[in-house]
Amino acid sequence: MGSMRLSVSDLKLWDFMYIGAGLCLAACIFLLYIVTTSRDTRYEWIIWVFFIAGLALIAGGFIYETRYKAEHPYEYVSKFKDIVEG
């Protein structure tokens, strides 16, 4: 078996969008923890900003990925197609 290497140049736009959404989720959890432990609600609005940004990144990533895969179907042919089809 050969080794498979993944570089940053192999990542597509939607990969970065999904990573950004994950970072937004992490920021939301961190800020929720800070607000809950300190009972200081001054920064509660920032949670909503990260939440909405995360949803927008997920939606944008899904749209870009779907469009790209529809325009380039030959890049996403399953290696196991012959096994599944019989």
Descriptive overview:
The longest helix is centred in the last third of the chain and has 28 residues. The model has no long low-confidence stretch (mean pLDDT 85). Helix 1 runs antiparallel to helix 2. The chain is an all-alpha fold. The protein is 69% helix and 0% strand. The chain contains 3 helices and no strands. The radius of gyration is 19 Å and the shape is elongated. It has a domain of 60 residues.
How much helicity do the residues have? 55-70%
Structural class by secondary-structure content:
mainly alpha
User: What is the tally of helical segments?
Assistant: 3
What is the average of the pLDDT values? Answer: 85
Q: Helix and strand string, N-terminal first?
A: HHH
Low-confidence stretches: none
- What summary fits the major beta sheet? none
Shape: elongated
Strand count:
0
Rg of Cα set: 19 Å
How many angstroms separate the termini? 25 Å
Give the DSSP E fraction (strand runs of 2 or more residues): under 5%
